Amino acid sequence: MNTTITLLPGDGIGPEVVAEGRKVLETVAAQFGHTFTFTEALIGGIAIDEMGDPLPDESLAVCDASQAVLLGAVGGPKWSDPRAPVRPEQGLLRLRKELGLFANLRPVTVAPALMDASPLRADVVRGVDLLIVRELTGGLYFGRPQGRSDDETGRAAVDTLRYTEAEIERLMRVAFDLARQRRKKVTSVDKANVLASSRLWREVAHEVARDYADVEYEDLLVDACAMHLIRRPADFDVIATENMFGDILSDEASMLAGSLGMLPSASLGSKPPGVYEPIHGTAPDIAGRGIANPLATILSVAMLLRSGLRLAEEAAAVEQAVEAVLAAGYRTADLASPGQPTVSTQAMGDMVAAAIESSSK
Ligand code: IPM
Ligand code: MG
Predict the structure, then answer these.
(1) Is 334 a catalytic residue?
(2) Looking at the structure, do residues 94 and 132 belong to the same domain, yes or no?
(3) Is 281 within a domain?
């Protein structure tokens, strides 16, 4: 199989973690007899610096022509002046919109070896296996009007939370279809006691639920969901929600897994390419120091293999390699307990690659 994969390293620790993702893909290619062709393209702050545009048309074209996209992260203090005319994050949002990536899958599981890395007690996080299905191309991120609306009374700004029934329905169908392959439970999260968009969300979600009588369904208000994620996280299976609630809840849920550095994601539309990326950001405080955790990116590579390239065996090999390396006690700084020795970003990637090689021999 000859496959083209676009790499979008982006900013901060993005290039460091994507390099390890590529290393793992190259190892998989060698071990399983595939040919992956990589093309690197610019996105985010570095694209603003070099091209004046956070997603140059060339980058979008390269992504569009490939089978899958592996992305690092975008943004950083250099570009975060609130008065700047253009921001790195706009590149990521445009990429999601242009590729039609309306469903963002964020699985959260707790590696047995990391049970003690979570700030929550082991008996709370044991058995956690949930999947956040976040709507990704609607809601507050894209609603218009958006922007400053200063008037004679002073400064003001507006964002718009708008959803159409079609947007809600297609997201809920993805959530229910995925639940059928899992523990058959969907929790739809909204703020229907306050927001009109959430009342439509709930109405449409109930209509879709009727087509999935075999799947258990519940509604939960977002504030209550934030609480239950800490109190009884193992009860959740699929959590379906709108764009910004999903952004916030997924960072919260990452703490169940011990570190934001562990969580992968897949952003999917109705056709390839999907975009696979760690949910963490650019971590400017540690960028360039070779200490970032590459496992969220490596686990995103597993999602890329499984859902982007339909290579289930290869995906499982990557996931098992990660488990094995953690079980052997290797930790990047974010995962280590005080006094525990740590390994670098590169060493972690090397170790996962070596574990793939030894398991598929
Ligand atoms: C994420 C990030 C992005 C988002 C930012 C960088 C625009 O936080 O993927 O969760 O809010 O979607
Ligand atoms: Mg986020």
Answers:
(1) no
(2) no
(3) no
Cα 32 to ligand 2 centroid, rounded to whole Å: 34
Q: Compute the distance between CA of residue 49 and CA of residue 73 in angstroms, rounded to an integer.
A: 16
**CB neighbour list of residue 354: distance below 8 Å, 6 or more residues apart:** none
Q: Find out whether 275 and 55 touch, Cβ atoms under 8 Å.
A: no
Ligand number nearest to the C-alpha of 14: 1
141 is catalytic: yes
CA dist list (Å): 61 to 69, 73, 242, 324, 333: 12, 19, 28, 38, 37
Ligand nearest to the CA of 265: 1
pLDDT one-digit tens code per residue, 52-107: 999 999 999 999 999 999 999 999 999 999 889 999 999 999 999 999 999 999 99
Kindly state if the Cβ of 249 falls inside 6 Å of ligand 1: no
- Three-state SS at 343: coil
| Residues 171, 135 contacting (CB under 8 angstroms) | yes
Q: Is 66 exposed, middle or buried (0-12, 13-18, 19+ CB in 10 A)?
A: buried
Residue 151 β-bridge partners: 154
Looking from the CA of residue 73, the nearest atom of ligand 1 is 6
How far is Cα 12 from Cα 347, in angstroms, rounded to an integer? Answer: 19
We report the CATH number of the domain holding residue 246 as 3.40.718.10
Its pTM stands at 0.96
- Are the C-beta atoms of 275 and 101 separated by less than 8 Å? yes
Q: Which of 247, 276, 330, 334 is catalytic?
A: 247
pLDDT tens digits, residue range 42-54?
Answer: 999 999 999 999 9
- Residues 54 and 92: their CA atoms lie apart, in Å, by 8
> Which domain range does residue 352 map to?
1-102+293-361
| Residues around the ion ligand 2 (C-beta < 5 A) | 247
